Sequence to fold (128 residues):
Amino acid sequence: MINRNPETLSELRLVRNVLAISKYYTVSQEFIDEAYDFLKAGSSRHIAGYTSTISFYEGSKVVKSFQVDRPISSIDGIYVSATTLRITPHYTPSSYSGFGGGSSFGSSSGSSWSGSSSNNNNNNNNNH
Fold:
């Protein structure tokens, strides 16, 4: 829980967003309070969580970073601001291996991409 009493709807959203961090990362009560105070202090501030780090940003500048545990592997990251909460789900590649057969799409083996044909034999054979 957060040790703040929200007085407005925007502060209530901020509490919800900050508490979401503790759903996905192992963080202390002090961290939650610090995150709340950090985000409340400015609209250009946000928090980004990655696989083992959570960073506080002001604009694009990292202000502070923390090493954290992420016990839930179903996410790859989290973005939190006073108004936004965005979770990046974990990407698991499918078993599809991509292009097969060894074809060389776009190779430069004499073919032209300009739309003209490189086979002039048809024109030459019809001129007899």
